[in-house]
Amino acid sequence: MTADTYAATGAQPAMAGTKADAATGPSGPRPKRISPGRIGIYCFLIIVAAFFCVPLYVMLVTSFKAMPEVREAHLFNLPREWTIDPWIKAWNSACTGRDCTGLAPGFLNSVKIAVPSVFISIIVASLNGYALTFWRYKGAEVLFNLLVFGAFVPYQVLVYPIIIGLREMHLFATLPGIIIVHTVFGMPILTLLFRNYYSSIPLEIFKAARIDGAGFWQTYFRVMLPLSVPITTVAVILQVTGIWNDFLFGLVFAGKDNIPMTLQLNNIVKTTFGTVEYDVNMAATILTALVPLAIYFISGKWFVRGIAAGAVKG
Are 270 and 198 within 8 A, CB to CB? Predict the structure, then answer.
């Protein structure tokens, strides 16, 4: 072929583009050699990973050891005889103060607290973000700024006023009371997330729905809610992990009948009769952390996608 033929058919640019893509790859230029800088980055990442993984490894292997082997203090050795008795005891019969019922009741209480709190807070925050983005009204910016300000107020400052308010409503130390607390404290940051995400949605989509005769609720449920799956996933991860790992609110607002799993874990670790059962304590700690760990492992990629989805206004 001649140069004119290449220019007319576009074969040469296509071939050149293919070579360039192969050289650069989807993430930029590929390094031709390992530089000292890259070696330093890898070493740093390995050290950071070991810093977080070594304690988890020690907890895991200790939870499968019997107490005579734990007393030998060989933290990094694998168990000579594997046993799940510490896990069974942590779940069924570990003592949390005077009650020796294990973590099972606390797990059920954590589920009863987390599920409605997550659902209500996400629905309310989604509606707030939707209204603040597409249905501007007088004072909307002031309200939004107050909500964002609420995300930075320390929880400890508001504990006593909330106690007084819940007491007056006869909701202190009840399941509805702690659900309200988690819902209220989750709304500021979630409203910020949803508003930023909805701001990235082209306004033409909202206008098209309005032209078709959709009102506030129809536009929300039929248009905006289906489009907000990525940011909803982020909100679910944040709320579930935050509520599940909470200790302060469970201690103050839950009441004796609704003690969450984290509070029971604290009582198991601090309750001792003679010998400190480190294997049971480690098993109880891992059991308490299983739900957040599972959520991060299953939904980690969706979390990154959801955060990136609202990062750039389209």
Answer: no
Does 119 lie in the same domain as 86?
A: no
> Residue 312: is its pLDDT beyond 60?
no
Number of domains present in the structure of the chain = 2
CATH number, domain with residue 160: 1.10.3720.10
Q: pTM of the entire structure? A: 0.78
DSSP output for 155-207: HHHHHHHHHHHHHHTT-TTSHHHHHHHHHHHHHHHHHHHHHHHHHTS-HHHHH
Handedness of CA 70, 73, 77, 80 (dihedral sign): negative
Dihedrals phi, psi of 96, to nearest 5 degrees: -115, 80
Domain boundary among 62, 91, 120: 91
pLDDT in tens, 74-127: 888 899 989 999 999 999 988 887 788 889 999 999 999 999 999 999 999 999
